[in-house]
User: What shape does this take?
Amino acid sequence: MIAATMPIQRPRDAKLLVVDTAGQISHHPRPALATLLAPDDLVVANDAATVPASLFGIHVPTGCPIEIRLATRRSLAADDRCFTAVVFGAGDFRTRTEDRPLPPRLAPGDSLQLGPLRATVLMLLDHPRLISLRLAGTAREILDGLARHGRPIQYAHLRAPLAMWDTWTPIAGLPLAFEPPSASFVLDWWMLAAFRDRGIKFATLTHAAGISSTGDPRLDARLPFDEPYRISPSTAALINDSRSRGARVVAVGTSVVRALEDAGREGVVRPGEGLATQTIGAGTSLTIVDALVSGAHERGTSHHELLRAFLDDSTLAAIDCELEARDYRTHEFGDSVFIEATIRRDIPVPITPRGDPCLR
Assistant: This one.
């Protein structure tokens, strides 16, 4: 598959691959999504805006240049100043993440000067690139420092530097995601009006979508990290009502799947804040979500692995072939897929936390 190389949100001319409940594959323009949904379906999207989570600075003990990529944190609280971060040495997004040098040797207590922000290394997390850190200052000072000095996390497949507004979806609200919840690029006001006209319900939740790649296969195998989310009482009520009536719940993005399946472990979605600690993939019984709108993801990524909860491996392989044969674009500004779950189980299998040592 071919990576989308331009930071252009393409709601009108992008492609949409569709897999129905029988495993049949078809191709459509992406604006056709509304016509493929049924009246009374409930579409749920992630309304988190993207934080400028890439911070360049200096490792104070050595004076060496570093790049910090904030990857996740434990809560959505404004005063939560502790983050898990991926650290690189000199360079920027123009070098492939896999080829970026390691940072200087880090130790707990080390200071990092990141433009106007100062951070302290709290722990090393079993990998030279992975640390926990605390940013100094009030919540307002940290947000101001991120806004003035931070940049969007970016990868080498994009040719030009991203602006922050490139990463904000049309429904973006509070700045809490570390990378864009890019499945929501499928949405625009025309699409939402089409939902309304067809009797399709729409709701949002807030999920702090984390980093999608670290550049190291061993570290990438831990993705996705634990990620906090918030579901409002009104969204929870809509979901539970839809399920009680047999209407479908359609998640826009893998982050929405993680939040809803975590909050609905007992078959009813609970409102409030939570921490999605589970890995969803082959063998996972989906309790809440019936269908998924997502980007076109490459094999080997955590996003692609999550699709195995919806589809058997032979159908997923057929999708991959179709995406390649028809030149679908991957990554955050690429094309989309709409997958109706073909795997359903009568006896739910509990989703168990991974106990990821880097976030415990």
In short: The helical segments are 33-36, 139-149, 189-197, 217-220, 233-244, 254-263, 302-306, 313-325. The chain has two domains: 2-50+161-359, 54-149.
